[in-house]
Each structure stands twice: as C-alpha cells, then as structure tokens.
Specification:
The chain contains nine helices and 24 strands. Strands 1, 2, 3, 4, 5, 6, 7, 8, 22, 23 and 24 form an eleven-stranded mixed beta sheet that branches. An eight-stranded parallel beta sheet has the order 9-12-13-14-15-16-17-18. The radius of gyration is 20 Å and the shape is globular. The longest helix has 16 residues, at 138-153. By secondary structure, the protein is an alpha/beta fold. Helix 3 (185-194) runs parallel beside helix 4, helix 5 (234-243) packs across helix 6 and helix 8 packs antiparallel against helix 9. Helix 6 links the parallel strand 16 and strand 17.
C-alpha cells in the first residue's frame, strides 16, 4: 500500500529552482553520476504533470514555475514546459549534520575536497548543507572554521556545525577521547568567532562543567545549542533546554537509553516542544520502532532527518579516517577499526526519504517536513528554502512513482536532469 498523502488544490502554480541527485542508493564518486543538460538562467520553464508536495499538502498534476533562480507564481509566455507524469516534485533537502561524502571529509582536506563532498550530496538531493566537523585540537578546529566559513560566504554551505570537542567521554562514539574537553564558554566562543558569523550549531554534553553557560552563550549569539554525546540525567537535560538548547543531536545515539526509573535525556528531549530531534534513518542507527516513537511523541514538526554522513557516503566501502580515528566501511556501515563503534553513516537524504515512505510508512508530507522545512526553519533560512513557494530559491527534487530520485535542481539549474 502506498503511503497516504493529503491533497492541495490541483493545478497549483509555483516558482522554484533546485539541484539534482543521483538515483537512490547509487554508489561511486560524484563524477560518475549523470548531470545532464542545464537550462540557461534566462529561459523560464514549467514542471507539469507531477504530484507536488506543498506546505498545504500534496497537489496532483500541479505546475512548478521556475524563472531564473526563483520559483514564481505565473508562467511567462516563452516558458518551456517539462512534463513529469507519474513523478513527485519535492523541495530540496536540507542537511543539518553532515561530515562529508564522495571520499572527502569536511574536517580535513582542501577546498576542492570539500566542494567534492558538497557536490556528492547535491547529486542525492541535498541542496542546502551544513558542514559538520569532528573532535580535534581547538586551534585546528578554529583554523578549519576559517576555511569552511569562506565556502559559506560563497553560498556553497549553509553554515558550520561543531560536533565536539565539548562532549562526554562516556558517550564519545567515534570521537578521540584524548582531544575531548569541557565546554568552557571561552573555548566555545573561540570556535564561534573563528567561524566569522557562519557557526550554525554546536553539539554539547551540557552536563559537563561550563555546559549551561555555554548554552546561554550560543543562544545569545544566534547559534543552535544541540544536546548530544551526553550522559546527562533527565533533570540536567531539562536545565539545558530551559537555558536555550533547541536540538537533540542524533536522538537515541550517543546518550543513555530510555529507562522507566531513570528516563535520562531521551524523555526530556522528546517531550519538550522547544526541541527538534535529529534522526539518522539508515536502518542501522535506529530500529524502526525508535523512529516511530520519535514521530509519535515529537510529531513531524519537531523531527529533522540528517545523514551524519562521513567520507564514504556516495563513494563506497573501504578504509577511511574520521578525524584522527580509522574507520572501516563494510556493506555501507561505518565502524571504528579500534572498538567497533558506529562512526557516522554513509547515508544520503534521498535514501532516508525512500526508507521513510516505503519501509517506515511515514506520510510523504511528514517526511518532507523532516527533510526540508524543519531544518530550514532551524537555520533561519525558511524564507528562501525548505518549501516550494513563490519567491523562494528554485531548489527541488524529482522522484519517480517508487520514490527513487531522478532529478535535482539548485537555484534554477539542474544538477541532475530528470529528462
């Protein structure tokens, strides 16, 4: 049975431009995926015949009008019509938490390496991406923030996410314990300043010394304070939320399990309307029942699908480095060579969507909210991306009837052409 969807008025006219993606589950380097012909910016065109997921629901046989880099309300007379019967058109995906792809890491490597990683995820529908770093030396992270901030200023990235070093050694996951440190507000401020206004999010174990003061500091500077890699109690988590934390870094992972006498952070994060919970929907990080628990208790409006991807995403199995730690990727699952902890993922967001609607039976509209609208709102970008509405950037994804990605557009240019 196909996932249910609500209906919006048929024939809705929109304007948007997006980027392309490779077919769901595709492997290989970014350069191996087809890119297809690209429309010129001065040639408006209209996507017709598809089911279009709008903020108000799904519109059958709707039109999406793209003029230049934007979605517009009315089709110019000279517009080219592209018919997509049996397809879906969705807003481009927004990834809050991503460490790399295409064989490239956002924590190390050259500008060209980072751009290759970004392009790999664009081929899979992610038209807006935050680059996440892993735990490292504080000075090294500050230097890295300078490089990434330049790419953010150019529009290639939506910001920088520092995951570590301010996390708990009890829940370190694939982070180097020797480089961990307490979240002293002065150290947190150093990274934020190094990002030159492009720091989007910092993950903290807020129960550590300085954690609550650092949450307040981040909130004052307009940076998302995310609770994660934490060993906090329920009460400590509540204190951090009251101080201004708004995101749960990959809920369930790298935190104490839910207990009936000691509920820990999971209960506090799920129950509070101020928190958006990240979920890694790759079939490895979460049991389907855990995913359903999060959707039922937080609701679709408080879920953000992320990849937590590392270098191997869109590239293949093999040996990789995640910061200073060696990772073995086998059958698409990344684990530390030393100890076997899960070390990020090889997920792309088109696969997260496909799994959500075909296996988890999440309604397509709810999945789109988690993939696009919610993360865009968190980043303060919803006026530009996250939904298909006139005046917004033309960032969109085309899927076939089986929810397999066939096209991606970013700012009015095809990254992958569905024709």
């Amino acid at each position: 049975m196909a996932p249910s969807h609500t209906s919006a008025p048929s024939g809705a006219v929109l304007t948007d431009a997006g980027s392309g993606s490779a077919p769901s589950g595709a492997r290989g380097t970014a350069h191996s995926a087809p890119t297809g012909p690209r429309p010129t910016r001065d040639a408006p065109f209209v996507l017709t015949g598809a089911k279009v997921v709008l903020p108000t629901g799904t519109a059958d046989n709707a039109q999406v009008v793209i003029d230049g880099t934007k979605i517009t309300e009315h089709a110019p007379e000279a517009a080219e019509f592209i018919d997509l019967p049996g397809h879906w058109v969705l807003p481009g995906f927004v990834d809050l938490h991503n460490h790399g792809g295409g064989g490239a890491s956002f924590t190390s490597g050259t500008v060209e390496d980072v751009l290759r990683g970004i392009h790999t995820h664009r081929l899979h529908g992610t038209t807006t991406l935050v680059a996440s770093t892993v735990t490292g030396d504080l000075d090294g992270l500050a230097q890295r923030a300078g490089l990434l901030s330049e790419l953010a200023e150019q529009g290639d990235l939506a910001g920088i996410h520092f995951e570590g070093p301010f996390i708990s050694p009890c829940r370190k996951g694939a982070h180097s314990e020797e480089l961990l440190r307490d979240p002293d507000p002065a150290d947190v401020r150093k990274l934020v300043d190094a990002a030159r206004g492009r720091a989007a999010m910092v993950t903290l174990a807020t129960e550590l010394p300085g954690g609550i003061d650092s949450v307040r500091l981040l909130a004052e500077h307009g940076v998302i304070a995310a609770i994660g890699h934490t060993d906090a109690t329920y009460e400590q988590t509540r204190e951090a939320i009251d101080a201004g934390a708004t995101v749960a870094t990959h809920l369930f992972n790298a935190m104490p399990p839910l207990g009936h006498r000691d509920p820990g952070p999971i209960a506090a994060l799920l129950e509070d309307d101020r928190i958006t919970v990240e979920l890694i929907n790759d079939g490895t990080h979460l049991h389907p029942a855990a995913l359903q628990l999060a959707f039922r208790h937080a609701g679709a409006e408080r879920v953000a699908f992320i990849t937590d991807a590392m270098d191997a995403a869109g590239f293949g199995d093999g040996r990789y480095m995640l910061g200073p730690l060696e990772v073995e990727v086998a059958d698409g699952v990344a684990r530390l060579v030393d100890g076997g902890s899960i070390a990020g993922s090889t997920l792309t967001l088109d696969r997260a969507l496909h799994r959500a609607v075909t296996i988890d039976r999440i309604p397509i509209e709810s999945a789109v909210t988690a993939l696009s609208a919610n993360p865009a709102r968190l980043l303060g970008l919803y006026d530009r991306v996250g939904s298909l509405e006139p005046g917004k950037d033309a960032d969109l994804v085309v899927l076939d009837a089986e929810f397999v990605l066939k096209g991606v557009m970013r700012k009015g240019e095809w990254v992958v052409d569905p024709r």
